[in-house]
Design goal:
Blueprint (H helix, E strand, L loop, with lengths): L3 E2 L2 E4 L4 E6 L1 E2 L2 E2 L6 E7 L8 E6 L5 E4 L4 E6 L1 H5 L4 E10 L6 E12 L5
Parallel strand pairs: 1-11, 2-11
Antiparallel strand pairs: 3-9, 4-5, 6-7, 6-10, 8-9, 10-11
């Protein structure tokens, strides 16, 4: 699997709910049995300070294996707890057997403060 670059912007205090469908040559990629982890850090390296982690374990990433979708869900309270700034993330998929692990996405993760109170 090829790692793609995707810019993510989150507004503090707002629900962030995005679903992406994974396809290869216009065919949905089955994700049955897969788990996912996404870490957001201050620098693009594992030694950077961890801002937050989204995963299938903590319910912030939700995989519909048959549909080939990954839903990224942060509540308004969770986004409010994030400090405004520019960060970096990557998203790792692991097969149910653990035999295959791929980095699916990476890129900048921006947290913006809201204008309206």
């Amino acid at each position: 699997m090829i790692t793609s670059r995707w810019n993510i912007t989150v507004k503090r205090g707002a629900t962030h709910d995005v679903t992406m469908t994974l396809t290869v040559d216009d065919a949905t990629l089955p994700l049955v049995g897969y788990t996912a982890r996404m870490q957001v850090r201050d620098i693009p390296h594992q030694d950077g300070t961890l801002l937050t982690e989204l995963s299938t374990s903590n319910g912030m990433l939700i995989i519909d294996g048959a549909a080939g979708t990954i839903r990224r869900l942060l509540t308004a309270a969770q986004t409010q707890a994030l400090a405004e700034g520019s960060y970096f993330y990557d998203l790792k998929l692991t097969s149910g057997s653990g035999a295959a692990a791929d980095y699916l996405l990476e890129g900048p993760f921006t947290v913006e403060d809201s204008v309206t109170s």
